[in-house]
Fold this protein.
Amino acid sequence: MLKINNLSAAVDDGQKTILEGLSLDIPAGEVHAIMGPNGAGKSTLSYVLTGRDGYDVTGGDVTLDGDNLLDMDPEERAAKGMFLSFQYPLEIPGVPTMTFLKTALNAQRRARGEEEMAAPEFLKKARALAKELKMKPEMLKRPLNVGFSGGEKKRMEIFQMMMLEPRFIVMDETDSGLDVDALRIVADGVNKLRSPDRGMLIITHYQRLLDYIVPDRVHVLSGGKIAASGDADFAKKLEAEGYDAYAA
Amino acid sequence: MTHMPLKLDTLPTRRDEAWKWTDVRGRVDESAAGLSVAGLPKFTLPEGVTISEVETDDLDTDSAMAKLARNFGGKVWTIAVPEGFSSETPLIIEGLNRGHIRIRIDIAKGASLSVIEHHAGDAGGFVNIDMTVTLKAEASFDRTIVHSDPADCVRIATAHITAWNDAKVTQHALSFGGALSRIETRLAGMGKHIEATLNGAYLLDDKRHCDMTSYIDLAVPDCTIRQAVKGVVTDKSRGVFQGKFHVRRPAQHTDAEMRHDALMLSDTSEIRSKPELEIYADDVACAHGNTIGQLDESALFYMRQRGIGLAEARALLTEAFVADVFDDMDDEELRESLLVKIREWLE
């Protein structure tokens, strides 16, 4: 599914190297977690995978189902199935949530050569999912994320994820800003999306989220590369012992 | 009324402070269609509103463009709205495509009138419209301007609005510019407790120019003024905003807000902005704000990450930026038609 091979990346016009030879293979059906200290390059990895401007790939390659992601624009990657749940979801003033999401969904469908989803079907799906995520129906009418609390924004990310049904999901610090109840709702949503033909990469500073979304593999990101890997219990060990042993 | 051709040196030039960014003299030559003749506007009147042609040399103003309208525009199209009048049907003004045009609208006590003006010029045209509107007590005037000219058409449209007590003025202007265009609105508050909303948006590409100028002169207490103008410029276009609130000593308890916000979508486009407050009354709340910026790169990336292509993401964000100046329009259908025009421009 997602194969990251010897990936290096820099910011500040190539002045500052963040990732240095990172390799990771996430097969379909698996959930991997990346943990690491602040500044290890966790968010950089999420932006490099999704093609944000200002993050320059200086070496290596990334493929999703064998296709080279690094050659694609962000929207092409999205249509291919890449989804990033943002650490800080953006507010989009003036664009109602439903308009935004319908535009996104149908743009992806068009790019894949599929038929657009008709309005009634879209609405029905959106209402059902909003209920499942315990979101107020008014939230869907309001401009996207505008005036939403941190927790509401994160829930909105999961809502979008469930509407768009991506092939591969990257979650960047999804648990930040969530109280325990919201965390459980979000985790339930994510767990429902686990499937044999979908992969996930969870980027997190704390182990807490991984109590709710149990990963197949846990990796430590340090010094721009994977410094160690283990199973779900490895996260608990990291939480207890800290990242010092893996310092670059 | 003169039959001599218009002398170009009677046009305003950039040496006039009020015209420093909109140089009419510099953009017009003798070949302009309609330069020295009267225009022929077309009016569709709601039932109960009357129109007549009145011959007069009187002028309420000494502005250069008003004088030219008097000299070349001929009779004044004079529209009378009787006392207490109200109608779902708007007055529609079309045929504002070339020449000098003088229009006078008298709205009697307690009457309300909606006007939709379609400003669409001829290729190579010159248009000079001088409009005078008087609102008696408790009258209301709801004006919508839709402006789109060919790239070589010059247009100056000036409205002088006089409002008496408890009158309400609402204006929404949407402009896609022209070779040179100016929509100027001058409001004189003569009676207390006037409410005015003067919103507008300009979206310009190529080498188009649009100037939205306004002058609000208040000499009476308890007036509320809201002004929000949004601009979008790209290519080598130029947007001009000049807004002035003149709050005279008797105009206590004035509550006035002026905003101009513009997006520059290219490095070669231009915005010139001059918000002005001149205040002599001491118990007032007057504010102005002026910003010029670009589309938020983070928001664009967020939208692209969800699969929305760059062009569509830009269009959505730009529409959202502009559209809110039309949010308060009463006529939902008319508002939607303006949004459709904005979307067409963005495509």
Q: What stands out?
A: The first strand of chain A starts at residue 2 and ends at 11. Strands of chain A lie at 2-11, 16-26, 31-35, 56-64, 67-68, 82-85, 168-172, 199-204, 217-222, 225-230.
